[in-house]
Structures are given as C-alpha cells and as structure tokens.
Amino acid sequence: MVVAGALIIGVGPGIGQAVAQRFAWEGLPVALIARTKEKVAAAAEWIGSMGVRAVPLVADAADEAGLRAALDTAVGELGEPDIVVYNVAAIRPDTVGELSHRDHLDTYAVNVLGALTAAAHVLPGMARRGRGTFVITGGMPEMKPQYVSLSLGKAGVRALVELLDAEYGPSGVHIATVTVGGVVEPGTAYDPDDIAEHYWRLHTQPRGQWEREVLH
C-alpha cells in the first residue's frame, strides 16, 4: 500500500485545522476526523481549495469502534499515514469532587483513551515500516485545581507518550506531544498557525534530534 499523507484526529477551527493546513501546504494529502460533519467539511473544503486532496470523516474519539472504522477508511483512501495527530480534548472547568465517576470516565475517554486507541491502531504499521510520526496535543504544563479532569487527562497524555515512545521509538517512530500552555486564539501568543509549526518541525526532525515534548 502507498504510504502518504497526514491524518488529523480532532479538526476544528483552532489547532486541528491549522495543523491540517500546515501539512497540506507541504503537498501532503490529509485525512480529517471530527465529531461533527460541519467542522470536518469546512476544513476539507479549505484544504481542497489549496489543490490538495482532503478526506473528511466523522467519528467520536471516545467511540472506539467508530474511531477505528474512520482510521481504516482513511488508510483505504490515502494509504498508511506518514504522520498522525491526535488533537482532541474535553475541556471543562471542574473542581475536586464536582464530577461524578461517570463524568470523569467520559472525559478521560476523550482526553486519553481515544489517543491510545489511535496509537494502537496505527503505530504497529509505522513500526513495521520503520518510520512515522505520532503527535498528541497536550496542555496543562502546571496542574490547576479549577480544571481537575483536564489536568488528569493531560498528565495521562504525558504518560502515554512516554509509554508509546518506549514501545515504538526504537523501531523508528517519533512519538511526541505539543503542550499548549494557554488559550488558543489567533493573533495572540497562542496563535494556532504558530502552534502548527511545531507539528511540522517534529515530523521533519532527524532521528538524532527527536524531541518528545514541545512546550508552546
């Protein structure tokens, strides 16, 4: 199967769309996954206007079967991806004891388990080929008691990246996280286009210079 392109899970008007566009500017076809048809269709239309192929797909990152099906469709359309970006998060303010166990589990399913599902689905193929990049969008460089579920999720992302790197890094797969330390907003220090540059840089880093975490 032809190896080509980028696969972005979590495409919205912020980081996800900016990252998809950044890879499209380099001529890579892009598979786009989002929970709503409107978001992914808008991103695909924009990329299509650049003369680059975009495959829009709808899936909920917390739905394991649905996410795996979307990943299979993406591979069927574009081939095995060169890079996969997991850019999904359930962001909500909550304090200690405020959420039920069920709410915490639902949030963790989005923030961490969806990334684990995607990794388990695509990384073995990258390892067999001896190349590839898998990047998770992180956050919360410092834990905040006003954002308990998000803080736990982003701590889980760091642990997951470390585990994936230990498992697949020796096979030539670059595993990394981009930790965003503030609210993403165009024209600010957290402009999504500026953040997107980290993903491209991580993807093109020589193996001897691989970074596992980039803080923006």
The helix tally amounts to 6
Main sheet characteristics: 7 strands, parallel
Oligomeric status of the shown chains? single chain
Roughly what percent helix? Answer: 40-55%
Mean pLDDT over all positions: 94
Structure description:
This protein has 216 residues and is an alpha/beta fold. It has a single domain (6-215), classed as NAD(P)-binding Rossmann-like Domain (Rossmann fold). It has 6 helices and 7 strands. The chain has helices at 15-25, 37-48, 64-78, 101-129, 148-168, 192-204, and strands spanning 6-9, 30-34, 54-58, 83-86, 133-139, 174-180, 213-215. The protein has a 7-stranded parallel β-sheet with strand order 3-2-1-4-5-6-7, with helices on both faces. Strand 1 (6-9), helix 1 (15-25) and strand 2 (30-34) form a beta-alpha-beta unit.
Could you provide a short overview of the structure?
The protein is an alpha/beta fold and 216 residues long.
Task: Based on the model shown, name its key terms.
about 220 residues, alpha/beta, Rossmann fold, seven-stranded parallel beta sheet, 6 helices, globular
Note the topology:
Layout: E1 6-9, H1 15-25, E2 30-34, H2 37-48, E3 54-58, H3 64-78, E4 83-86, H4 101-129, E5 133-139, H5 148-168, E6 174-180, H6 192-204, E7 213-215
Parallel strand pairs: 1-2, 1-4, 2-3, 4-5, 5-6, 6-7
Helix pairs in contact: 1-6, 3-4, 4-5
